Amino acid sequence: MLEIIERKRWGGKLSRAMIEDAVLGYTRGEIPDYQMSALLMAICLNGMDEEETFELTRAMARSGERVDLTAIPGVKVDKHSTGGVADTTTLVIGPWAAAVGVPVAKMSGRGLSFTGGTIDKLEAIPGFRTDLSMAEFTAAVREVGVAVTGQSGELAPADKKIYALRDVTGTVESLPLIASSIMSKKLSSGADGLVLDVKCGEGAFMATKEAGEELARAMVRIAGSAGLRAVALVTAMDQPLGENIGNALEVAEAIEILQGGRKDSDLYRVCRALAAEMTALSLGLEQREAEKRLDAALSTGEALEKFRAMVARQGGDPETADHPARLYDPPAFVITAWRDGVIEAQHPRALGLLAQRMGAGREKLGDAIDPKVGLVLKKRVGDPVAAGEPLCEVHLGRRMDEAAVRERFKEAVVIGEKAEKRPVLLARIDE
Ligand code: URA
Fold this sequence. Notes:
By secondary structure, the protein is an alpha/beta fold. It has three domains: 2-47, Transferase, Pyrimidine Nucleoside Phosphorylase, Chain C (Transferase, Pyrimidine Nucleoside Phosphorylase, Chain A, domain 3); 77-324, Nucleoside phosphorylase/phosphoribosyltransferase catalytic domain (Pyrimidine Nucleoside Phosphorylase, Chain A, domain 2, 3-Layer(aba) Sandwich); 328-416, Alpha-Beta Complex (Aldehyde Oxidoreductase, domain 3). The chain is 45% helix and 15% strand. The chain contains 16 helices and 13 strands. Helix 2 packs parallel to helix 4. The chain is globular and about 60 Å long. It binds uracil (URA). Homodimer.
């Protein structure tokens, strides 16, 4: 392992055997955390070429089993986001795509660094089980059309261990590590197709549109080399995607969209575009036809009905679909605008870190989450504001005091003179 670390430390290329030794040795517990941390940091700093990234992906995928979804009829299309702030798309898209007949067997992860995770969000619904066995998982998809469960221990266990280590060693932001982490799980997930949502901007692991496109191309290529059809959308994460940041709050916002609300939001636009890609891929439809079917499923209430059925099937209270506000307490206080102007920035990373600090995410391995805490933003970048107008409702919890939240919020939001509204859908990459 020392030789492998040193080679990467000096910018050398790792062979397939070296990558396999490191990944499989670490998974088996033969390589200690400190050595893996050192290798991850060397990869972060010196990168990996396409071949090394593919080998890393393969080794992590091979560390576990491949999920067998053949018992589920139809073309299974998986969806994955590279992670962002207030990005609750899976909770909307899973039931929505299922409502038009796409079988959705989704394995999701937990929050990483300042980003939220679908599994943490779903656990905000009391009783909701995210630890389905493979048999339970496939049975739920067959019966309901959609199920979302945690990444099983058998699925790319190397990634599970490495992901947790990266989260606490400052080694999250690296193209080869992100691409291989995501794609190892996707290659093992048993799906026939894949729709990727690659976030870019300050609240994503890729800062620029170009870096987002590069990550998107890397992942679509890995998929292609492994025989999986994939398409990626590059979407903006230069402010939180939705209005709500925090687990229960994000579930509630997803439900509002499934209820037919928030049609003029970036969250809705991204969900609709991703769901259309999934539907087109799974059912072999033109994009337009896919969108038409999805619009109908939303207006007839079928999408919300799928959400209700999914929650019930996984042990949660189906009435959550009608009363999402039961998931959290009323806000403790409201932060108002400190001057007249226009919202120039709502720095997503700072807001994500603030929510994390309040208890919506973890700062170290094994930290408990407080599902009810978080922020509800009342404005978008480009919106005019008058002094005294509400900017944010704060669901406080116990880990921070009001003054500290106010101070950090004020550092994260800029009220200026002028700002444009920016598009959220930036690029589509399919080869
Ligand atoms: N999502 C993942 O699954 N892995 C990463 O490394 C980043 C986002």
